[in-house]
Design a protein that fits this description.
This protein is mainly beta and 81 residues long. The chain has a single domain (15-80), classed as SH3 type barrels, CATH 2.30.30. It has one helix and six strands, in the order E-E-E-E-E-E-H. It has one helix spanning 75-80; strands at 15-21, 30-36, 40-45, 48-53, 57-60, 65-67. The protein has a six-stranded antiparallel β-sheet, with no helix packed on it. The protein is globular.
């Protein structure tokens, strides 16, 4: 089985939408990514900020679709790889 490389993109500031999730209530959340930690992202929505666990979601930005397990880890480590 071939492992996918981690995404090397910075996500903070991008508009994003959750298109798939283990927790189906998260699907459809959309807004601007305002914070990113090793295991979570925070999306600013019209109803407030939502903190979401990365490995449980798939998000879509204008440019790409990201599986959460491929964007796990600290942003500075991910970009250096």
């Amino acid at each position: 089985m071939q492992r996918k490389k981690p995404a090397r993109d910075a996500l903070i500031g991008r508009e994003a939408e959750v298109i798939d999730a283990k927790n189906k209530t998260l699907i459809g959340i959309q807004g601007r990514i305002t914070d990113e930690t090793k295991n979570t992202i925070e999306i600013s929505t019209k109803k407030g900020n939502k903190k979401i666990i990365k490995d449980q979601i798939t998000i879509r930005t204008k440019e790409k679709t990201f599986e959460g397990k491929n964007i796990q880890g600290r942003i500075e480590t991910r970009i250096k790889q």
